[in-house]
Amino acid sequence: MKSLSVVFAGTPDFSVPALEALIASRHRVLAVYTQPDRPAGRGQQLAMSAVKQCALRHGLPVEQPSTLRDEAAVERLASWNADVMVVVAYGLILPANVLAIPSLGCFNIHASLLPRWRGAAPIHRALLAGDAETGVTIMRMDVGLDTGPMLLERTTPIAAADTAASLHDRLAAMGAQALLEALDGLIDGSIAARVQPAEGVTYAAKISKAEAAIDWSRTAAELDRQIRAFSPWPVAETCWNGQQLRVWEASVTNAAATAAPGTVLSADATGIRVATGSGLLNLLRVQLAGRKAVTAAEFLNAHRIEGAMLGGIK
């Protein structure tokens, strides 16, 4: 089967499995585009993206334009003469003249079952909404926001214990495999692009830090989804004894809440049980500001919390 020449564009960890899969395939990765190095960590030292690190390990040329809207950047991209451009969480807008450069088009791995959850944070939004399943869509890109025709979808159930981290890793691996299947189908004509359905469109707005605050008047099931959706970032948080208390892991207890939402009803080695708007939430792993995350049992070795009222942010 014919091999394709590929320009790859991506930035975070989610993009790396797809790049690795392309490198290991019969296709030829000509160049890798990624966001410019940016300050990171406490020292604010310039850091390379995960994709750049991967590309350098494999000896691939790396391009890091700050925009693809100026003439020089467009000409440079065109000079690679690629058959396709594969875009995975790149972070830069591709204008129409850029989308037209590769002879067979630009293709994206999107972490949802389109047209549900177009936009920036599909993994988080699917968890928050309580979706039963999610997946990846291989899409030919157009100028809209995740509106292009679909080549291939792969589905996975969302388990009760799934977090944004676990779904991220599963969908990244699924997307890499689906991408190779879609490229094969593109070459042999076995896969035809399909227009997205007009019904069922939702938008996955970018996650903000403000959304991390726990509102104890919501149901235990909703709060459990919030905690899982915001692990590992921005991490759901509440306030206890005048200080931030982050909640990394919890479970739902169906017993009726017998006190005002936010009241710690009981606490032992099996968890810290808090009243919510409906049901109890059992906190299993928590973290005080400036401290490491610990189990409920470890937290209770050093703190008394039973009877406390949780709520708000310091």
Write the layout of secondary structure elements.
Elements (H helix, E strand, L loop, with lengths): L4 E6 L5 H9 L3 E6 L4 E3 L4 E3 L2 H8 L4 E2 L7 H8 L5 E5 L7 H4 L5 E6 L7 E2 L2 H8 L3 E8 L9 E8 L6 H25 L14 E2 L15 H10 L6 E5 L2 E11 L10 E5 L2 E5 L4 E9 L5 E2 H7 L12
Parallel strand pairs: 1-2, 1-6, 2-5, 6-7, 8-11
Antiparallel strand pairs: 3-4, 7-9, 9-10, 12-13, 13-16, 14-15, 15-16, 16-17
Give a nutshell description of this structure.
The chain is an alpha/beta fold and 314 residues long. It has helices spanning 16-24, 50-57, 71-78, 96-99, 122-129, 164-188, 220-229, 296-302; strands at 5-10, 28-33, 38-40, 45-47, 62-63, 84-88, 105-110, 118-119, 133-140, 150-157, 203-204, 236-240, 243-253, 264-268, 271-275, 280-288, 294-295. The protein is built from eight helices and 17 strands.
